[in-house]
Design brief:
four-stranded antiparallel sheet
Length: 92
């Protein structure tokens, strides 16, 4: 696991949204694993959006890197798919 954000596409619960799982290392050594859904129109239009525009159907904070894979699977993604955000269109 790198010390940088990684993400992967996931199936969305809504046909109007794109969805990703992302893993963000926290300064305290824990990891935030979240699934987000963003309206397709915002992403396709390269529009600015904020947290209120997203839905977070899954969020888990894990204490150790060894717990990340299980949390990523719970969020609906194979951990082997995690990659740098620019490789899967994650909207930074």
């Amino acid at each position: 696991m790198t010390k940088a954000l990684v993400s992967a596409r996931r199936p969305s619960g809504s046909g109007d949204c794109y969805s990703w799982v992302w893993v963000l290392p926290a300064p305290d050594g824990r990891f935030r694993v979240a699934a987000i859904e963003v309206p397709k129109q915002l992403v396709d239009d390269d529009a600015c959006f904020c947290e209120e525009d997203m839905r977070t159907p899954y969020l888990r904070i894990v204490d150790e890197v060894g717990e990340v894979d299980a949390a990523v699977r719970e969020a609906g993604v194979d951990p082997e798919q995690l990659d740098a955000p620019w490789n899967n269109g994650f909207p930074l």
